[in-house]
Write a structure and sequence with these properties.
5-stranded parallel beta sheet; Arc Repressor Mutant, subunit A; alpha/beta; 2 domains; elongated
Length: 200
């Protein structure tokens, strides 16, 4: 989703503000509502937050970001008390997608929100691509293992063994990976039986 789409759909955005109810916290909530977001205020911090598209959270002094974990599936916008080295380190540790510095100004809230949402969407696309690549590599390893099993069992060449797996997949209308898993599972069962006989 593009930044333009984010802006057009802001009224559908669910935003949680994890910030004390002071002037900055109230101003932040007010500005987000003015933008059109559906805002929920949470304080003190809680490890279990309601579902949201974005979370604005305070990194105070001393910083406590232990509650900011992988269980928060949202764009993260950090609100820094100051730009001290301690807080900047906490900012990096939080994996925030955007940042605001107190005292807050209305002019930076929208741009930070759009940036955080955009970066979060890009991050999710990368994670999805990485997951597909890992699945492809896993399937390839399984097919290679199954090919070696068929080569040994039927005294076939690598090419013929692979074609055998492909023909089985076509005949059964499943993927070559599914056939490979079946072959590996069957071999594991046979190996287990052999071990059992040896033990007897």
């Amino acid at each position: 989703m593009s930044s333009e789409s984010f802006i057009q759909n802001l009224r559908k955005m669910r935003v949680i503000v994890v910030h004390p109810g002071d002037t900055d916290g109230e101003d932040l909530v007010r500005q987000l509502k003015r933008i059109g977001c559906q805002v929920e205020f949470v304080w003190p911090p809680n490890t279990v937050l309601p579902p949201a598209d974005a979370v604005f959270f305070l990194i105070g002094d001393p910083p406590d970001i232990s509650w900011v974990g992988l269980n928060i599936d949202a764009a993260l916008v950090a609100v820094l008390d100051s730009e001290s080295p301690t807080l900047l380190k906490a900012l990096l540790d939080s994996n925030a997608h955007a940042v605001l510095v107190r005292p807050l100004r209305p002019a930076g809230v929208l741009s930070s929100l759009v940036l955080a949402l955009s970066l979060r969407a890009y991050e999710q696309r990368l994670i999805g691509k990485a997951s597909k690549i890992e699945e492809t590599l896993k399937a390839r390893r399984e097919i290679e293992k199954a090919t070696r099993i068929i080569m040994a069992m039927r005294n076939m060449s690598e090419g013929d063994a692979y074609q055998f797996i492909r023909k089985q997949a076509t005949a059964k209308r499943v993927s070559t990976s599914a056939i490979a898993k079946s072959i590996i599972s069957a071999q594991e069962v046979l190996d287990g039986l052999d071990l059992q006989r040896t033990a007897e």
